[in-house]
Specification:
By secondary structure, the protein is mainly β. 11% of the residues lie in helices and 44% in strands. It is elongated.
Length: 431
């Protein structure tokens, strides 16, 4: 039996069909391969991201807390130190010696010893002069960064303080001074003094400007210029009082130079204009303009002049305050400084020098009016030119100066016993 030959091409097709992989399997293979690659790459990216995030969290700076802006702390500093002045900074237990490099902050303590004083200037320009044997606390010295309002405050535990305030930089700024029994808010350009006695009483005086005081007992006292009030240890305020007027100093005037041949027997006359209504005066003389260790400290002086005997060569400062019949004392005058020395050249006598008081010179162009008083019988010369002296020692003369510019007028008194006293006054002549 003959075998049937297969049709041409049938075997090749079958073989091809049998050996060729199916198309769907090829697609699945490629799909699986790409999916694996994507998964691997995605895993690597995720790992790298996790590592980077961990590194950022570990090394990132701490997040700042969101708070309201706090007042900017500022300071006060010493502008003058006389004698033994100590400071105890907040948070410390040791008193250290004060010096100009010390910056005073909130809650710092300042203490002055006997005969010592300190002048403190706050950052806003307020000046506080701490008198001897006083203890104060810096209670506030700050400026709000957003409003620019400034606050300055100090507390007086004991002793005496004088102060001067400045103009406010913005509305709402304040200056406060307190004691154990009263707190006062001072206005701008105010000047005053507060004293805390050993009994606990507070004596508050205002020489310029205004202030509002609130006592521990709940009283409110409005204080105007040249007024004072006393608050007792219980915090009760007494009636307001009017302070006496400030005296005007006459002789020796500021920067006067006085010469004595014999200092041991010399007499220096201090004189001032009488104050209406004053019953007495408080006279102070010191080697220092701070009057911490006065050579003369005399209350209740009834006259408007005082003689000082036996002053040595040197510079002296003096000032006077008036007292009323109730011993209420007003503000002191500005100090005047005079210099005591020995005369040079001719004219030295052997007897004690006469008293000599010369009022401030009145210069009009090249004419100088010289007024004053010496002892009866003494002779007076001005720049070597003799002037008339009345029987009571008063003289009033007009002297012509020949050259212009700054120069010195020499007033010399010679007593009947030959003693000589001399004063030198600087003047400026303009033709």
């Amino acid at each position: 039996m003959r075998k049937r030959r297969p049709e041409p091409g049938s075997v090749g097709v079958a073989a091809m069909a049998k050996s060729k992989p199916p198309r769907d399997d090829l697609i699945d293979w490629f799909t699986i391969s790409y999916r694996s690659i994507y998964l691997v790459v995605g895993g690597v990216v995720a790992i790298l991201g996790a590592v980077g995030y961990y590194y950022y969290l570990k090394n990132a700076p701490p997040k700042a807390a969101v708070t309201e802006p706090a007042p900017a702390a500022t300071t006060a500093h010493f502008t003058s130190i006389e004698g033994n002045v100590k400071v105890k900074a907040v948070g410390t237990f040791e008193w250290v010696t004060a010096d100009s490099s010390v910056l005073l902050k909130k809650s710092d303590l300042v203490r002055t010893g006997a005969g010592a004083s300190a002048e403190i200037t706050f950052f806003d320009g307020t000046v506080v002069h701490v008198r001897p044997d006083s203890l104060i606390t810096i209670e506030e010295t700050s400026e709000d960064p957003s409003t620019k309002r400034r606050k300055v405050a100090w507390h007086i535990s004991s002793g005496e303080v004088n102060f001067q305030t400045v103009r406010k930089n913005v509305e709402g700024s304040s200056t406060e001074v307190s004691t154990p029994t009263v707190k006062a808010t001072a206005g701008e350009l105010a000047q005053g003094g507060i004293k805390v006695a050993e009994t606990g009483d507070t004596d508050m005086k205002l020489y310029r400007g205004t202030a509002v005081a609130e006592t521990r007992a709940g009283q409110r006292v409005d204080i105007a210029a040249n007024e004072g009030v006393k608050v007792d240890a219980a915090g009760k305020a007494g009636p307001k009082v009017t302070l006496p007027v400030v005296p005007t100093l006459l002789a020796p005037p500021h920067q006067a130079e006085i010469s004595y041949p014999d200092l041991a027997r010399a007499t220096t006359l201090l004189a001032w204009k009488p104050v209406p209504g004053a019953a007495a005066y408080h006279v102070m003389v010191d080697y220092s303009p701070y009057f911490n260790r006065p050579l003369v400290d005399r209350n209740g002086w009834r006259e408007s002049s005082m003689e000082l005997r036996g002053l040595d060569v040197g510079k002296y400062y003096w000032r006077v305050a008036a007292e009323d019949k109730d011993t209420v004392e007003g503000n002191f005058s500005d100090f005047a400084r005079f210099t005591v020395g020995r005369p040079t050249g001719a004219g030295k006598g052997e007897g004690p020098p006469p008293a000599l008081m010369v009022e401030p010179l009145d210069v009009r162009q090249n004419i100088v009016q010289v007024k004053g008083k010496t002892e009866p019988g003494a002779t007076v010369t001005v720049n070597g030119q003799r002037v008339d002296v009345a029987s009571d020692g008063v003289f009033n003369e007009f002297i012509s100066l020949e050259k212009a510019g700054r120069q010195t007028v020499v007033i010399r008194a010679t007593g009947i016993n030959g003693g000589v006293r001399e004063e030198k006054r600087p003047v400026v002549v303009a033709f």
